[in-house]
Structures are given as structure tokens and as C-alpha cells.
Prior knowledge:
The protein has helices at 7-42, 44-68, 71-80, 87-118, 124-138, 141-156, 160-183, 193-217, 219-222, 235-265, 271-307, 311-345, 351-383, 388-412, 417-448, 450-459, 461-473. α10 runs parallel beside α14. By secondary structure, the chain is an all-alpha fold. The two termini are 34 Å apart.
Amino acid sequence: MxxxxxxxxxxxxxxxxxxxxxxxxxxxxxxxxxxxIMSGHASSVxxxxxxxxxxxxxxxxxxxxxxxxxxxxxLAQHLGAxxxxxxxxxxxxxxxxxxxxxxxxxxxxxxxxxxxxxxxxLEEGVRSIAFRFLAALSFGIVPLFLYTAxxxxxxxxxKTRVTMLISLVALPVNIALxxxxxxxxxxxxxxxxxxxxxxxxxxxxxIAAISLLVIxxxxxxxxxxxxxxxxxISFAAWKELLRIGVPIGLSVSLEVGVFAVVTLLMSGxxxxxxxxxxxxxxxxxxxxxxxxxxxTALTIMVGFEVGAKRPADSKQYSFIGLFLAAGLAIVCAAFxxxxxxxxxxxxxxxxxxxxxxxxxxxxxxxxxxxxxIAAPIQGALRGYKDVNVTFIVAIISYWVIGLPxxxxxxxxxxxxxxxxxxxxxxxxxxxxxxLLARLLFIARRFQKGALQGKMTTKADAAGLAVKQNVQNNCxx
Length: 476
């Protein structure tokens, strides 16, 4: 990357990184969507089992892969500072930590999954499908976490088009495996919803293998000779990864978790209300891919500029991304307002569910505006390696404010189920304001040079230890 760019050039760079990320996220979202849809065509029990299993796995997966994704801002800053000698070492440590987290997740699941499902008020058939779906999925956790580390390495170099192509390959593979395993085609047994878990596990191995091949063979990455001589485990490097990754993972888990809790609380309402809520949340989650992708792109761009010690550029990228997200959110909000009936019709033909879904989608308009501020700022702050305040904001906005407000409105006013949505909107809005204040503060401090000193003494303390040990640890 050049030292200086005009505003339009920076916007072009951001879009060049952003668009492949967006396509990748849509492909990943589509895999979960087809798991659910195709399981539903097997039977209602299979659909319910996969839905329960996915609701348990989603916050866990989001949180743990969020920890591994700490590799992205660290590598982006290494690249910006031209510390390329540290890149193979950092990726290797990210791989080791990914394997450790994955194995730990499997071990905990062996002991915890049955008790969790036993305490849920489920039909025995649904409970069995959910357990076996997650058991099958567990065979793909190691490659999934490794793929997250590989993707972070590739994305940090700005090669998001590569991960986009991998995601686009994975989607038809996942759909084909679902078809064969769920419905018992080509001589395979009919596995129902459990087949969706097996298909996902196999798909995770496929994308991890493709990513590994790309890193070894692609000219942009082969120069690092990542697997030529792997270093020993360095707990100093793990400390830096965990210091950045744990707050990221917890923040993501808290956000995903509050929506999961609201869904569970919705179980006290009619089937029509639950169905309408699920449909509206699903489409809102789809639209969230836009600000989330901008967030990922900003982590890369801001991290590079911070590493290069260009505070004006890092701040400008942050606000380019923020205004881009806000503009796109206005477009999405207008779309939801004008075509909410057509969107609702994608999910149901039941007139009662369709009408209620339309109402929920109007509330989703306000989701778009808050997410357009909060998500890009989170990405920018990760580029600065500033993650602890984001975690604190998530606790306060979602769990201290949003969920209690929603519960109070739902339980003690005539708003009913809509009260939970108002609570979520309130929490998201509070979080967006808090994060915006933090970004302005961090950008101002970095502009003055004070933040850079703090990052050297605190945020990169473990990183300095890593640098001192790179040469020693690279010997095996």
C-alpha cells in the first residue's frame, strides 16, 4: 500500500476489501440457512432439533472464533509496521491456540451437552436430533477454528477475494452434502437433521484444506514458508492473542447471546408470534452482514495504518467506513419500509404470521441504524487493538439496559412481544453511542501520539516478548 491516498482512493481500497468479505459472509449465512430449510423438509422434528442445536452452538462458535480472529489485527499491524519476520510465528501460534480451543470445546461438550439438553423442555425426538446434530458437528470444530486462523492471515494481507472464493466453493459443497445425507441419496442412509451436522463438519474440513493449500501455493503467502519450520508453542504469544481475542469473543457472544435469550423468552407467546419473531430476526441478521463486513474491512485497514503509525489515515478510514455503513443502512431501512410485506412473504404464507412479521420488520429498521454505527466502530477499534471497552459496552448496553428494558416492557405493558424488540433497539442505540465516544477518544489520543506510547507499553507488552523469542522459538 502507498503512504498517502486521496479520499476517493481510500474509499476504493475499502470497497475492494469489503465486497469480497460481504460475499463471504452471505455464503456463510446461506450455509446455516440451507441447513435449517433442508432439515425442515425432512420433518418438523428434524427442523426443531437442528434449530435447538444451532441456537446452542451459535453463541459458542461466535465467541470462540472471535478469540481466534485476534490474529487479524495483530498481523495487520505487523504488515503496516513492516515486521514481516513476525508473521509466520504469529500465525503458527494462532494455529496452535485454535487447536487447543477446539479440543477444549469438544471435551467440555462431551460432559455438558447432555445435561443442558436434559434441562430443556423438549420432546424426546427433538432432544435426540439436537444432541446427535451437535455430536456430528463436533468432528468439524478443529478444522473450523484452524480455518478461522488461516482466514485471518489471508484477510490481514487484504486478499479478501481469496477467502470469498473459498466460501463460494464451500456453499455448493455444503448444499450437496446436505441433500445426500439428510435425505439419504446416492446409497447413503437417510440421516435427517443429523445429516446437516455431518455435512457441516465435512465442509469445515474442506475449507480448512483449501485454505491450507492456498497458503502453501499462493505467491503472496508462499514466501513466508509457514510450514517449512514450525516454531514451538510460545505462551507469551498466546497471551497477546488472548488479551485481544477474549474481549472480542466475549463481546460477540454477549451480542449473539442476548438475541438467543430473547428468542427463548418468546416461547411464552403464541406459535404465530414465535414464528413471526424468528422470520424477522432472520432477515435482520441477513442485513447485518453489511455492517459486519464493513467492520471486518476496517479492522484490516485501520490495523495496517496503526502499524504504519499514520494516525490521520487510520482515523479517516474509520469514518469512511462509518459513513458508508450509515448510508447503506438508510437504503436498507427504506427497503424494509417499502417492501416489508414482500420480505415477510418469503418466510410464510400464513396470513397471521405474515402480518405480524411485517410489524416486527418495521422495528428491524431501527436495528439497521444502530448496527450501522456500532459494528464498523467495533472493527475500527479492533484495528487499534482497543477491545476491552467494547466488551464493557456490550455488557452494559445489551444485558444491563437492553434486556431488562425489553423484559419490563413485555411483562408490564401492553406492548407484549414488541417490548423485547424495543429493549434490543434501546440496547443497540446505547452501545452505538458508547462506542462512538470511545472511537473519538482513541483516535484523538493516537493523533497526539499518546496512544502509541500506551500500545507499546501495555497493548504490545506480550508482543515485545514475542519479538524477543521469535528466533529461539523458530528452532525445532
